[in-house]
Automatic annotation (TrEMBL):
InterPro entries: HTH_animal (IPR058912)
The organism's taxonomic lineage, starting at the top: Eukaryota, Metazoa, Spiralia, Gnathifera, Rotifera
Start and end residues of each Helix-turn-helix domain: 29-88
Pfam families tied to this protein: HTH_animal
Coiled-coil portions: none
Protein's UniProt name: Helix-turn-helix domain-containing protein
Length: 173
């Protein structure tokens, strides 16, 4: 019985849950070759892995879902090493003690002084510039943590109008 992206299967001992996808679902996601930050690509796979870990109630169901994620990622040009690294990292993290992890996170967040900066995304130079900025800020204020927000620049919109010119007879009012 599918319900909100979860497939619930009933059996004698209770219920099993796994990720539900419609029969019409296609294997498309962010393409590896697209000109977007690698962090976006990583996030697209991470979201699928996190969803599988949260929803699947048995290891064999989780394994099957990971296989589907691998197939989808491979179809969109992702390397198997990239996907395996994310799966391993997320599995290791999910099986750690949640209490200890939460306590450490709460203590570290109390002392962090977050600063945000928005940069244009221009592939590798953007990362190099952000890394250099972070090191300069860290030298001057060890408690500050710089978070970079990348923004794509679409130069063609500046030169072309998105609307057609209308005659006065075509205008309303």
């Amino acid at each position: 019985m599918p319900f909100l992206g979860v497939l619930v299967k009933r059996h004698n001992n209770g219920f099993d849950t796994t990720v539900y996808m419609k029969k019409t679902t296609i294997k498309l996601m962010l393409k590896w070759d697209s000109l977007i930050p690698t962090s976006y690509k990583k996030s697209s796979v991470t979201a699928l892995v996190n969803r599988a870990i949260r929803i699947c109630s048995k290891f064999d169901l989780l394994h099957d879902e990971f296989q589907q994620i691998r197939i989808m990622a491979n179809f969109n040009g992702y390397s198997s090493n990239f996907v395996e690294e994310i799966i391993n990292k997320k599995l290791n993290k999910s099986y750690k003690s949640k209490e200890i992890e939460n306590q450490i996170q709460q203590k570290s967040d109390e002392y962090k002084n977050y600063k945000y900066i928005q940069l244009s995304y221009i592939d590798v130079p953007s990362y190099a510039y952000a890394k250099r900025l972070k090191s300069i800020i860290k030298q001057n204020d060890p408690t500050a943590h710089l978070r970079v927000i990348y923004q794509t620049t679409n130069q063609t919109q500046r030169y072309f109008s998105t609307k057609d010119n209308l005659n006065t007879s075509q205008k309303s009012g």
